[in-house]
Each structure stands twice: as structure tokens, then as C-alpha cells.
Amino acid sequence: MKKKENIVIIVLLVLMLIAIVGVSFAAFNFSQQGNTPNKITTGSITMTYEESDNTISLNGALPTTDETGMVRLNPGEYFDFTVSSEIVGDVNINYEISAKEVGDGTIDGSNIKLYLTRLAEDGEEQLMTPETYNEETTENTYTGRPSGEMSLYTSSMNSSESNNYRLRMYVDEGYNPQGDGGGLQFTIQVNVYGEAGDLPPGAGETVIENLTSGSTYDDGTDTFITGEDPNNYIWYSGKLWRAVSVNNDAKTTKLVTQWNISAIPYNEEGNSAFEGSYIEEWLNDTTVDGFLGNLRDYENFIVIDAKWNATLTTSSSKPESTTIVEDAVGLLNYYEYVTSYRGTTYSNGYLNNGLWWWTLTPYSSSDVWNVYRDGSAAGDYPSNAAGVRPSINLKSSVKIVDGDGTVDNPYRLEGDNDTILSGTLLNTRCSGEYIRFGNEENNLYRIVSHENGIGTKIVSAAPLKSSGTFITSAFDSNRSVNYSSTNTIGTFLNGEYLTNYVDFNYRNMIEESSTWYLGTVGGGTSYKLAKYTDTNMSSTTSATTSAKVGLLRLGELMAGQFDRYGNADYNTEYWTLTPYSSSYVGNVDRLGHAGDYNPSSAYGVRPSINLKSSVIITGGEGTKENPFTLALQ
């Protein structure tokens, strides 16, 4: 790496003051008295930061939603500033905007949200989604930012330019001002750091550079990671991923989830096209029901206009680029999968997870390439409900900040490496993150979504056990396909489960009643019908029931398999609450498929519940190795 010759540290002396008094809302009070330029010149570099020597105060402010806080435009409700540079010669500046709590604040930073945008000719460009104040535990040697500050935005410049930014800060909607006594304060100092030097390597470049097992293969366009078990595990947005390849030009990194996140039909019978398919819709669905809508800050992490090669082929060779689909999320195509085990066998390749899952690639006009549990692949009917392993492309600017790439210590990404979360509301966290909930051997759960808008839907990480053996239950001994609190499995979940598997402290966190959607999803039909009357999602189905405890729907997040077929410690087939027909109920089998089964048959049970909005995190990092611990606020 080229020696860093220039160091520019620019401290922004802007204090933002929050004073919460009473419970009536008052707008920001802000008076601007002119701009004060800060300029530092070192050799061939000049960077200027223009600040306003003022404070922003909220008087009698109530908490607000992200939707409101992100768009405030009245005078005093936002703060604009400029970072510009004058560069002579061949030099690159890596710079970072950060925030640091100063003074003796009397409201915890976990109740404060910050939101940064860049001003452009056509409006505001989001640079970060609203984030709770959270200080980084490590420094950034590429920008000069020290530890103990919250990173807001990182970028680089190698030519003279000027960028205008807008910062908003507000009280999180989850904060309860009742009884706080008023007069609360929270003050931050916003800093801009800059340092000359090489661009830091992207996530994929770091993975490849640090490989201690496996190898690489460059096909002229992408550099693939190959082999049996390379150290290419990445933890992002509550899920374990594998780094598959790095684009040679754009330096973007393709990831795929290690496990099957759900199981749905690929498309209608006889239609193998990815574009317009059920699976494309599920992957890119930005609502609470889809994958993309539950992916953390995806605008900051992934390429949203990525190109996916969905060209039909019966060959394992690199396909022509005749069918390209532009999406944020896709699947691996057949060629990418085959290339991953180059130099070994398909059974030993690192992408063989012992389950059945869809690739992106049509095998024919009516079949799609599907990977089997032994790692082989063949064409399969798109109407079948096989496992889904989403794939994304990380932006070249995304950096690795922790971990060693092993399964027990996966790489962690900058901006997704939260470590001090005590006091944070659970309803701000990501689908897939792990929590401690319940008793003894059944105390590991995962976040599903925030379906009811205020609370957190969770599900047991694996089907329930008793003395190390999976318990089983009929869905309904009377062969009803409709879940309720009084059918066979519903009686168990809303009775014995609450008594023997969940103690009082945990039971008190559960919403007393939740709505469970019972729409029917048959072969070759859309996952949306499990919850909605039609695929336009114009209204929810009238087929519902109310209960404290339920099950996951077919096609819902976390309704997949998260260990290999045959692992008797973690993997068994289990019920969903989605009817397949008037006679059969949906079930996720040990291979990761979803199928239809007689409701009087006995299979595993994965309870799902909605936790109250007042549940807070008391410790942990949300990983399988260090799950969140909880308390009721």
C-alpha cells in the first residue's frame, strides 16, 4: 500500500441540542447567523468544511417516526453543510463524516436517530437510513476517524469537487417521554476526517487476499472463490452468507446465503423465466413480506441495479448474455454454482449445503436448474416449492471491519457491526438475528420481521425438542387444514408450550393476540396468496385466525432450513400454517422443500409469536454465537 503522505483532520464544531420538555410537540428552533469556513491545506490538498455556528434545539418534542423525521424541511429542522476539496496532482482522499456525543447528556443515545443525505439537483440522495446513535468500537485507519464515534458516511475523492450534505436528528418513535421529568439533553459534535492514501480494499478483495484454504479462478470477468470450505463466510443483516466472486472491474462482491431462507414455487407450471416469476418478486419485494424489504440499509450496501444472467442453458460453461435481468436481488446461475467447486467435486464444493435449492438458470422453457442435497443439479418443475438462497452484490465501497471469515467468526461489514446495543428496542433489528427466548434446550429464536409495524415477530431457530429429540404433532387430528388456537397443534402451542417451554418473564413479552393469515398456496401459485386476496396485494385475505402463538406461513422469511439434511440435532421437517388445498397443509421438509401433507400426520413444530414493542435488548450481538438477551421495558 502506498505510504500515506497527507493527513487532513477537519473538526466540525456544530452542537445539536435536544431538550425534551413536557409532552406537547414544538418544532425545531434554529437561527442561522452566517457560515464559518474551516480550511486545512496540506501540500497539494485543500479541503474546506463550511459550518454554521449555531445549535438546534427541540423544545417539548415528542418522539417521531422515521417517515416524518426523514422529510422535515421547515426552517431549523435540518442542518446543511458542504465538504469540498481542491486537489492538485495524482492523490486520493478518503474521508468520513461522523458524530460524537459530547457534554453531559441526560437522554441515552439509543433514543436518538440521525439521518444524512446529499443534496443533488433533483432532490436528496439518501446516504444512510435513519440509524440510532451508536459509536464504533474500532478506528478507521483509511480516513483517520478514531474509535468512539458514530460513522455516518464514508467516501473518497481524487479530483476537486464539492458536496452538499443535509443532516437531520430526532427522537426515536420508540421513546416514551412520560415521566421523564423534562429538560433532557443530548449533544453531538459532527466531525469530518480526511486522509490521503490508497482506496481501502472492498469486502471481496479482502476475502480473497486473506484466503487460507480454497483457491480462486479468474474467468476474465469475475474472480471466483473455489474449493471445499474457504474462509469466505460473511455475516450481514442477520444472515450468514458466502462470498462467491469479485467483479474484476467494478470490484463488487457477489454473495449468496449459506442456508435456504425460505421455500416457494419458482413460477407457474411450465414457465421457467426468472423475470416476472414468483421468486423474482419474493426476492425484490420491498414490503414486510419480501426479502429485500427486510434487508438492512440495502441502498448503502448492495448494487440495486445489478445485472443477472438468466440465459437458458443446458451446459455448465459460461452462458451467453442473451437474457439479462436488472434487479437488486437474484439467485446464483448454474454456471456460477459449477464454478464454485472448480478443482473439487460438486459433493465437496462449499456451496453444497446439503439441501435442495433453486438456481437462476432455466434448463428448458419449462424446467429450471435445481441443486440437490448431494450437490448435483438437474432440471426441476418451476411449480415445485424448493429452497431459496438469495444472492446480492455488495458495493465496492463496503468494507470488512472484523472477523476472520470462518463459520464461527464470519467477516463483519462496516455499518453492520453493532456491538453496544443495550437499551435498544428489539423492533429496530433485522430479520434473521438470533435472540435468547424460552427455556433450556429450546431457548434460541430468530427475528422474522416486524409484520404488525410496532412489535417483532420471532420464530424458534429449530423445531422444538424434548430431551434432545424433536417433538412432533399432528396439525389437526380431525384433518382440518385451518389453523386455530383450538385445533391440535394450536391447542399445544397456546397451552402446553406457553406453560412448559416459556416461563413467566418471556410470556409477559408476548402480544396477547395476533392475526394469523390462512390463505391457500397450491402448486405453481404465488407466495403472496398466503396473506393476500390476490397477487397485487390489494387486501389481506379474509381467512384469518387470532391466537397468541402461531406458525410461519409458506414463503415467509425464516421458513426454510438452516442445517444440512440428516443433521438430527437441528434439521427436521415441520408444519407451516398455510393450507395447500382443502385436504392438505404446507410443510417444510428436511431437504428445504415445501410440500403438502395430510394434517393428521405428525411433524415438527416451530412456534412463532409477536413480541411487544417495548421489548429491549440487554446484551448480545444478534449472532448465533452471541444472541440478543431481552427484557421488557
Explained architecture:
The longest helix has 14 residues, at about 490-500. The chain is mostly beta strands and about 625 residues long. The strands form 12 sheets. Strands 14, 15, 16, 17, 18, 26, 27 and 28 form an 8-stranded mixed beta sheet that branches. Strands 3, 4, 6, 8, 9, 10 and 12 form a 7-stranded antiparallel beta sheet that branches. The model is unreliable at about 1-45 and about 50-60 (pLDDT under 50). It has 3 domains: about 5-195, no CATH class; about 205-395, no CATH class; about 420-630, no CATH class. Helix content is about 5%, strand content about 35%.
Helix-strand blueprint:
Blueprint: E1 7-20, E2 28-29, E3 35-42, E4 45-52, E5 55-59, H1 66-69, E6 79-87, E7 93-102, E8 112-120, E9 123-126, E10 131-132, E11 150-157, E12 161-171, E13 184-196, H2 203-209, E14 215-218, E15 222-226, E16 233-236, E17 239-247, E18 253-257, E19 262-265, H3 278-284, H4 298-301, E20 306-309, E21 324-327, H5 334-340, E22 357-362, E23 368-371, E24 377-380, E25 385-388, E26 391-394, E27 400-402, E28 411-413, E29 434-436, E30 444-449, E31 456-460, E32 465-466, E33 469-470, E34 473-474, H6 488-501, H7 504-507, E35 514-517, E36 544-547, E37 549-550, E38 574-579, E39 585-588, E40 594-597, E41 602-603, E42 608-611, E43 615-619, E44 629-632
Parallel strand pairs: 1-5, 16-28
Antiparallel strand pairs: 1-13, 2-5, 3-4, 4-6, 6-12, 7-11, 7-13, 8-9, 8-10, 8-12, 14-15, 15-17, 16-17, 17-18, 18-26, 19-25, 20-21, 22-23, 23-24, 27-28, 29-30, 30-31, 31-42, 32-33, 34-41, 35-36, 37-42, 38-39, 39-40, 43-44
